């Protein structure tokens, strides 16, 4: 199992992820504008409207991620298209019986949250397929700007690769964070050859 070290992420109050998609505003403006045509019961209209209005903020509240919400453009497109498809099908129907329409919106919302969680976590897990520092491009869900995630993969096939990976990590820390000091003796030769995952993790945590 890879130890994923987030090395260049800024903590920020995020509003969700789907709102970063290029079609989000047009799609959800349409959904909100036509919500009054989807239920026989007038009580469903304000409930459904509130669900659509608060969609982005509620998404972040439900993600419960231990890592910042950074999603790749490819995965964002996949999630957005899946959500739009389900919403478009829901809106193709005529008026629904009381309670049905907001319940379906909640179901789509929960499925969207699951898809976003999986998309973000899967990208992090993919880091284990690499040896050493690895970077991939993302979109920050906090402000929809281009960002990137840097992590450290332990999938090294030889001691030589492992030594190069750790040295690359030290160079990265030195350049971007100015954290390397002479006390990092546990990550310097000749200790690298027999360094275990647990030893490396403990050393980095101590510094």
Automatic annotation (TrEMBL):
Alphabetical UniProt keywords: Signal
Protein family membership: Belongs to the Izumo family.
Gene: IZUMO4
Keyword check for Signal: yes
One Gene Ontology cellular component: nucleus
InterPro entries documented for this protein: IZUMO, Izumo_fusion
Taxonomic lineage: Eukaryota, Metazoa, Chordata, Craniata, Vertebrata
Keyword Nuclease: no
Pfam hit, one: IZUMO
Signal peptide per UniProt: 1-16
Taxonomy, superkingdom: Eukaryota
Protein name: IZUMO family member 4
């Amino acid at each position: 199992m890879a130890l994923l070290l987030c090395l260049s992420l800024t903590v920020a109050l995020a509003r969700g992820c789907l709102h970063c998609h290029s079609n989000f505003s047009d799609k959800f403006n349409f959904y909100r504008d036509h919500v009054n045509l989807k239920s026989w019961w007038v009580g469903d209209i304000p409930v459904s409207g509130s669900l659509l209005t608060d969609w982005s903020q509620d998404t972040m509240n439900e993600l419960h991620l231990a890592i910042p919400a950074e999603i790749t453009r490819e995965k964002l497109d996949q999630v957005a298209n899946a959500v739009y498809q389900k919403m478009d099908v829901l809106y193709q129907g005529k008026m629904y019986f009381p309670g049905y329409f907001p319940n379906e919106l909640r179901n789509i919302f929960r499925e969207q949250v699951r898809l976003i969680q999986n998309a973000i976590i899967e990208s992090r897990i993919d880091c284990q397929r690499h040896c050493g520092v690895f970077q991939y491009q993302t979109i920050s869900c906090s402000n929809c700007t281009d960002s990137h995630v840097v992590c450290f993969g332990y999938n090294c096939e030889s001691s030589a690769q492992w030594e190069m990976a750790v040295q690359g990590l030290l160079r990265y820390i030195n350049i971007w964070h100015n954290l390397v000091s002479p006390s990092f003796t546990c990550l310097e030769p000749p200790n690298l050859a027999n360094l275990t995952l647990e030893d490396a993790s403990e050393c980095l945590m101590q510094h």
